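Help! Submission page says 'invalid entity' but I think these are all valid:
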Amino acid sequence: MACCNEHSRAEILRQGIARAGNGLPAIESGMPTPAGTGLDRRTFVARSLGLALAVYGGSALGPRLLDEGIASAAAATGGSQQVIVSVFLDGGADALSLLAPVQDPLYRSLRPRLALDPTAGTPFAEDPGLMWHPSLAPLAQLHAEGKVSVLPGVGYDHPNQSHFTSRHFWEVGAADERLATGWLGRYLDRVGKPDNPLQGLSLDWSLQPSLATSKMPVAAVDAPDRYDFWARGVWGDVGDRMIDTIGRLGSLSPQGDAGLRQATDALRQSSQLYRQLTPFRPKDNQPAFTSPVPYPGGDDRFPRRLAGLAAMLSAGLPLRVVALSAPGHYDTHDDQAKDLTDGLALTATSLLAFQRDLEARGLADRVLVHVWSEFGRRAKENGSGGTDHGAAGTGFLIGSRVAGTMIGEFPGLSKLDENGNLRATSDFRGLYAAILEDWLSTDADGIIPGARAFARPKILR
Amino acid sequence: MTGSPRYDGPFGTQQAERLLWRAGFGPRRGEAARLAKLGLDGAVRSLTRPPGEKWIGPSPHDDKGRPLAPADAYGHDHLWWLDRMVRTSRPLVERMTLNYHDWFATSNSGVGSQKLMLAQNRLLRRYSLGSFRKMLVSITANPAMLIWLSGIDNRKGAPNENYGRELMELFTLGEGNGYTERDVREQARALTGWTSTWKRGKGQTDFRFDASRHDPGAKVIFGKTGTFSWRDSVDLTLHHPRHAPFFVTKLWSYFVPDPPDAQTRAALETLYRDGGFEVRPVLEAILRHPALYTGGRMVKPPVVYIAGLLRGLGRGIDTTAWVWLSEGAGQRLFYPPNVAGWDDSRWLDTNTFRGRWSIANQALAPFTLEQKKGKKPPKISGDPDKIVQGALALLGNPTIREETRTELRAFARASLQTASGWKADAYPPLVANAVRQLLAVSPDLQTC
């Protein structure tokens, strides 16, 4: 480069980002796209960083300079952005199967049919009385590498045993039934940008309530490589213009009408998201992205969503918080043994592949995965090969930077609560506060109600 | 005494159109104008006191032209009900049945029998405009509900609180509103006694009340003591002072987005109590209320959106695609997400909007203007105004805002401006297809 040394080049690029607007500006209609139909990686990164105006608006930066410099800008901007991925085990996953107290004779008497074979899984190194569920072997492997922190009894006082209410508490980050915004949504309301729906991404059919914001846009996509707006009998530039018009209809004033506002928001954000995900639409039957490591195959969307997520992060897309549900059925009132084996196996293998993917792409230091469920299950099994709703449950933090040590001890079977459930040895609100403060570098006050009352566990190395 | 306020503004096509959306599934072609001629009272009565049911439009079938098998074939339960919404001459009956499906939300994911779900659906329809008391008594003993909320597991000595809790929390009083945890436990005891028999190949069958499973002892519910039965449980709850306010506010919320003011609520409560839990007088007051005609808009639930598009287009159920399309927009009939029903405040996000895009695309599919092989493109006017008018006419002439019309026109004009040479003939149909699609997903048509 003739014009600038490494430092000033990065500086210009940062200015370009600042000038181009916060997060992702609109791609103006009429703005030329590169010749041909496909966008190359450079354009993709530029768009995702909000550099589109700098690229196309005839800034001082020539395309060549951008070509070489954008990767470092991506690293500079994207690299400072820590990402939290929330993975939900829907239904109340059984703590006494995830980490089974196989050495405790009480376990066998409480679970005559369901107790796991004490030789079937890997012993849990931090507490030899416990054994990993055989299907969680991939997590045991990551734990041995120091990349998993286990919460063997996470919950809250006065546990609510309704799925609906308890899940809501976890989603809003408080034992408050009326709170309407999610804890991650309130975080985005503080740090997010008004034109970047991708900052809060549900990889799901609809929005995960933990991401519900009061101000900032957030997105839900079933699959990032399939977010398209196709219409029968429409093609060519009419099709492009049609998609622009979605955004225009979404930019009309709702005139103070709440219903219209919901609808216009959805149109506008969908059109923004469509542009953000442009590089993820397969072209000419070529897959939109490839992964450096194999993921589990099959029909389930979970591994594919994680693979897409790693690719999006790798491309520098402006994600901050991501939420999705794990595969499997965890409300195991009956047929618990089989349901758990299947669901946990796919969940854990996919999470291991995701970690390896991030490591291969050099992104592992930026991502923290939190695995949670609304409650654990009753210590005593029921009469139909299953277990009923309980209280404290098991959670995991996964990532290259986690402390890798237990948060709270295993509550033990000898001191169950008055309903025969495990007692909590850590509080999910303290965990959230630690994630906000230590991982996302923001004050938990104002996001987690009464945050000061909760002890912060050590979550990072 | 002051009654519920009555709308006294003009009652024209636009007001009739809104009434048909809120109290049904939108107008068929010309229906709003016909309804407007009846005046407000006549229009409301035609909905709340409809004559015998008639079916309007083509009868339903799957993609291969075969009739539906709602009790047996996967997804046909959804199609069967959607067809009723499209073809019925009694839209408020179907709409109230849908409201009650949300109110007493039961999911086949827990029941596991389309047959039992359809039986419950008939029950919801039977009392949809009638007595809430009869509704509540029947739903308490309804087989699908007995499975869904563990009524058949609730027996003397081993009470199950599932139904007793939701009876108060979700169906009649509201969460923590005038009852205690002790009331939950005592209600559960009063409700003991229902059972069924499991038969291989048939599932749960022979639902019955078995006195030997009922706890006949004394219970204390809402501070009253007695050897209460399951019917007492229902009546104690209905006569609880917090029930009428809960009932009228919840019923209102299905029709008007903002809660009723104090005077209206009091008037509706009086109508409800004095009428002995009859729903029709309350409904009539809500449907005549100024807030319905002058207040804000509501996002249409996905099935209402689908049924409305089909009614406007005059298209019947002719594909099973509606099952997954509806699910993709967030509403699969007979599968509410949980016992609290669908969350009406969160119908729209970037993914469910995409779901609605696919719905509009499917609804418009048979009308697509396409160039047939070896033929010239279909002849369509290149006048942007005419293209927008044509799209509106196809969709049954819905009312839209002027600024929406302006955007659609601007889109058509800009798309056609660049069309020279071969494009001059090829583009008008493309633009017409796109305008229809954009109109169908516009904020104006997502809301009512």
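Support: the input was valid. A stray whitespace character was the problem, and the output above is from the cleaned input. Chain B has a mean pLDDT of 95.
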